[in-house]
Amino acid sequence: MRSLLPLSLFLTVLDVLHTVRAVVPFEVITSNNPPAHRLGRRAVPISNNGNAAYMANITLGGVGVSVILDTGSSDLWVSFPGTPPTTTDTGKSISLNYAVGSASGTIHKAELKFDNYTVPDQAFLQVADSSSFSTNSAFNGLVGLGPSDGSAILDKIKGNAGETMLSRIFQQNKTSSNYITFLLDRKNDPSASFTGQFTIAETVKGLENITSQTKLNVETVHRLLDDQQHWQAITDKDSVIGPDGTTLAIKSIVPKAPKGQLVAVFDSGFTFSQVPRELSDAIYGRVQGAVYDAKNEWWTVPCAQELNVTFHFGGVAFPMHPLDVVDDNFKILDTAGNRVCIGAFQPITSAFSLFGNFDMIMGMTFLRNAYTLMDYGEWIERTSNDRGDPFMQLLPLTNRATAHADFVKVRLNGVDTTGSSQFALLPASQQQHSPVSAEEKKKKYEEMILSRWPYIVTGSLVGFILLVGFIIWRCCCRNRRAKKKASAKGFFEPKSETYLPLQVHGQGSPPATSSPYQHHQQESQQSLNSQQAAYNHNPQYSQQNFHQPPPSQYYQQGYPQQGYQQQGYQQQQQGYGYAS
Ligand SMILES: *[C@@H]1O[C@H](CO)[C@@H](O)[C@H](O)[C@H]1NC(C)=O
Ligand SMILES: *[C@@H]1O[C@H](CO)[C@@H](O)[C@H](O)[C@H]1NC(C)=O
Ligand SMILES: *[C@@H]1O[C@H](CO)[C@@H](O)[C@H](O)[C@H]1NC(C)=O
Ligand SMILES: *[C@@H]1O[C@H](CO)[C@@H](O)[C@H](O)[C@H]1NC(C)=O
Ligand SMILES: *[C@@H]1O[C@H](CO)[C@@H](O)[C@H](O)[C@H]1NC(C)=O
């Protein structure tokens, strides 16, 4: 959970914005009629930075700061714009690593105000230098809205004092429910009917019936480690409907995912949604003029191409707004200098789950199409009410017909040419497939092993016991048989040498069926060796992960995440020249 790369894409995109800033003024929307306190209901306004980042204001140590709302991580860090206010320094330093950049500093405590709540001594990471993270001034930090299990600050400062902002807030009113909701607005949407809003233990006016939507269980597919818990849900069966109106059947990488269903993480820190490569290819690979940009790892398509994509969760259809599916927020040019748009359901690469915890990440491109409720339930300690299982509820916001009209207005100058031959999808047989890099092949292979390690370990153990049992039996039996040999019937021999011993010794079933994972068990020995060789080439993997012997360290260091994050970061550094 911790540092689930929430910012990889977001920052990629901000960087793109930097390079094209002269072309596109990059303004922060501030709503004209803030909905806060409207009709007795509280809602914190959310600002939308070019459809690439969503932020809210908090007051920390008396200073107002703008922080990214990130459901993909669990820590609060702030880099004060001017001279930092006087706060309590705990003297403990930590470093939070994201796909792009890291935030390091010391943990401080200060009075925090958010919504209508005041936390007298909120723990947060005070970052002196966040330049490796971003030089963008649109925000001063980030507030993680994920479960506290993923909090690095809580790891350092145990107990109540180290709890996340939301835990501290929920603990103030022990009888209220432990949920948040958020509504992300879409910039450049001609029929936009709401502003960005964030609420705590209340719903946004007019959207109250989100509380009657299906409750999506977020713990169904077990993660292997506690800090790998995300805000996640399983899609319905065959739930993704592609641009040609048919189901896009994609196989899950999650070992326990039900057949035909995918595990989706909901992460407000990702600008673009991260989906399995086959899914991204199926959405964009049949568009005439589609080009895969291997450097940025996204598809580019003509901006006038309307693509309808629908996801299903909890038996409900979530149509994606075509303005979100083909993204025009970043003014990208192709090699010939023509404007093209980005396929905003991007192949998952740096965020790929090496432990096979999830298939895809629903970022802002998805979240703008749903009003989202996240109920923390029993994840919040020290509250008396709302002790149930955590869950999510989603209410669709996009109406297909209105969205189509919006698209025609914005991208086609009001003339509906979506039916013309230039926009017809190529036949499925002519679909383009984006190249899979060697790095990605390796990751997929590693995932296959790592996601199954508990079974592999169990399988190895069972195998070892069977082997020892077999050797013991052979020794004893040899002796006995040697004595019996003279009188034994010849035809009995072959059978007794094969499977009889195992049954005689009551070791359960014969070896071939003793564990369904036997196959993987054999695979694992080979591959772990080759993996270790591979990891050794990568100092981060070897130092941080494989060379830390005690298992407890793995937990503390957020084993799976840090490896891929930092790797992601390095890729970014190469691609965009980030200074570290
Ligand atoms: C955050 O605070 C700044 C400065 O007070 C203000 O200009 C801005 O509108 C606020 N943003 C939101 C989303 O409330
Ligand atoms: C906000 O908090 C103040 C003081 O705690 C309280 O008087 C006020 O009623 C609250 N407002 C709302 C809308 O709950
Ligand atoms: C606590 O929450 C309940 C339910 O939302 C509300 O009725 C009550 O007024 C709240 N108490 C305080 C002190 O804010
Ligand atoms: C939510 O409310 C609207 C009208 O306010 C209604 O049309 C819709 O059916 C309701 N949805 C659910 C899931 O209750
Ligand atoms: C997308 O869906 C809308 C609404 O159903 C429809 O009017 C439009 O023709 C569809 N566009 C394409 C390219 O399929």
Written account of the structure:
Residues 514-532, 553-580 have a biased composition (Low complexity). This is Aspartic peptidase A1. InterPro entries: Aspartic_peptidase_A1, Aspartic_peptidase_AS, Pepsin-like_dom, PEPTIDASE_A1, Peptidase_aspartic_dom_sf. By secondary structure, the protein is an alpha+beta fold. The chain contains 16 helices and 25 strands. Helix 9 (453-484) crosses helix 13. The chain is globular. The two termini are 24 Å apart. Residues 30, 45, 47, 56-57, 64, 66 line the site of one 2-acetamido-2-deoxy-beta-D-glucopyranose (NAG).
Work out the helix count: 16
Largest sheet: 6 strands, antiparallel
Shape verdict: globular
In the residues, how many domains can be counted?
4
Number of strands: 25
Uncertain residue segments: 1-40, 483-580
Helix content, binned percent: 25-40%
Proportion of strand residues:
15-25%
The fold-level CATH name of the largest domain is Cathepsin D, subunit A, domain 1
**Strand order in the largest sheet:** 1-11-10-24-25-12
Small molecules bound? 2-acetamido-2-deoxy-beta-D-glucopyranose
How far apart the termini lie comes to: 24 Å
Question: Which properties best describe this structure?
Answer:
single chain, 580 residues, alpha+beta, Cathepsin D, subunit A, domain 1, six-stranded antiparallel sheet, six-stranded mixed beta barrel, 16 helices, globular, disordered N terminus, disordered C terminus, binds 2-acetamido-2-deoxy-beta-D-glucopyranose, Pepsin-like_dom
